[in-house]
Amino acid sequence: MLRRLSSGLTASLTLALVGISTAPHRAEACTGGALTAADGSVVVGRTLEFGQPLDSQIAIWPAGSRFSGSSTSGAPLRYRSRYGFVGATAATHSDMLLEGLNDKGLNVGLFYFPGYAQYTPAAQARSGRILAPAQITAWILANFATTEEVKAQIGSIDLTPQVMDLIGIVPDLHIKVQDASGRSIVIEPRDGRLVVHDNPTRVLTNAPTFDWHLTNLNNYVTLMRAYPAPKTIGAPGAGQITLKPFGMGGGGVGLPGDFTPPSRFVRMVYFTQGAAQPANANQAAFNLFHILNNFDIPYGVTQPPKGTSESDADYTTWTSVSDLKQLRFSWRTYGDQQVKTIDLRQALQATRGQLRLLPMGPQRPTDSSPSTLMPVP
């Protein structure tokens, strides 16, 4: 594992990396959810899909780091971080994090929101308060410890439509925030302002809007994890027949299995609400990785629409889990299924006050890592 680390890292920082176990809208299908353990520990996880490799790295930002937003009109927001944090970048854009965790146990994730994001027009944005959409993750992680603090201050910034050079378009995004207490919110840019929704499900996918996804859950109130009881039907004089499930999982008949955002939202609610409660954070993180296996998209099984400039099939680039109690950020990539973990406290000490970057691992659909050949005694 240590061979995967960049040569410029200090020895102490490499020791902070340990394994849990030894143009048009782009087709992104991210899915996020959370579990709470019996001891109160909260873990948050998600998949990342984008229809093209984003070549994410692991960025470790210490407290006191200076940030400057970008702007196409007016002065950008400039600030200094109160808290240290770690996260997965959008390629070399170290201030644009797709997912992250700070040293207060706050988790933030960006999720694609195609066709629904309505940012503040550049001409109407307040000078000195402007950020590019993907810069909001770092701003939240750097400045806040709880979802209530985020809700209180979210109106102090303006996200304006700015093209991300990595993908050549303005990224349509909404944001999921969760703190160590278990509370979660969703932030959506609508009509030029940032609208905040409380998120009792702690689940997020993509379009349409979050309130629509909550309403759609009403279509699935009959789903249950219990084994359904047999049911006898028939009419007088016609005889009767007893119907019963063919096997385990009968209570989930009707659970949508496709990869559309509404179906994935329903499925993640079903799994996270029905899963047995783990005892502690370690078990919760392990269990959440297992749940996220159900949302892993193999390369090629979802294709972009014909007649557009989009040519890449969607696939799961990487999967991550954040432990909000023990402050651990874990991940695996498309080309390396071994889970790796950052201990945030150790990592921040090892940075010596400077931004540090770690390779996340192979993320392209042609990548693979060698398996270990076990000797037969």
Distance between the termini: 25 Å
How many strand segments? 20
Q: Strand-residue fraction?
A: 25-35%
The major beta sheet can be summarized as: 8 strands, antiparallel
Portion in helices: 10-25%
**What Rg, in angstroms, do the CA atoms define?**
22 Å
Q: Structural class per helix/strand content?
A: alpha+beta
Shape: globular
Order of helices and strands: HEEEEEEEEEEHHEEEEHEEHHEEEHE
Number of helices: 7
Strand order of the largest sheet: 14-13-12-9-8-7-4-20
Spans where pLDDT lies below 50 across 5 or more residues: 1-25
Average pLDDT level: 90
Q: Could you walk me through the main structural features you see in this protein, from its secondary elements to its overall organization?
A:
- The structure is a single chain.
- The chain is α+β, with helices and mostly antiparallel strands and 377 residues long.
- 16% of the residues lie in helices and 28% in strands.
- It contains seven helices and 20 strands.
- It has helices at 11-14, 136-143, 147-153, 210-216, 261-274, 281-292, 344-351, and strands at 17-18, 32-36, 42-49, 57-61, 66-68, 78-80, 85-90, 93-102, 107-112, 130-131, 158-159, 173-178, 184-190, 193-198, 231-235, 239-243, 316-323, 328-333, 336-343, 356-359.
- An eight-stranded antiparallel sheet has the order 14-13-12-9-8-7-4-20.
- Strand 2 (32-36) and strand 3 form a beta hairpin.
- The longest helix is centred in the last third of the chain and has 14 residues, at 261-274.
- It is globular.
- The chain starts with 10 loop residues before the first helix and ends in an 18-residue tail after the last strand.
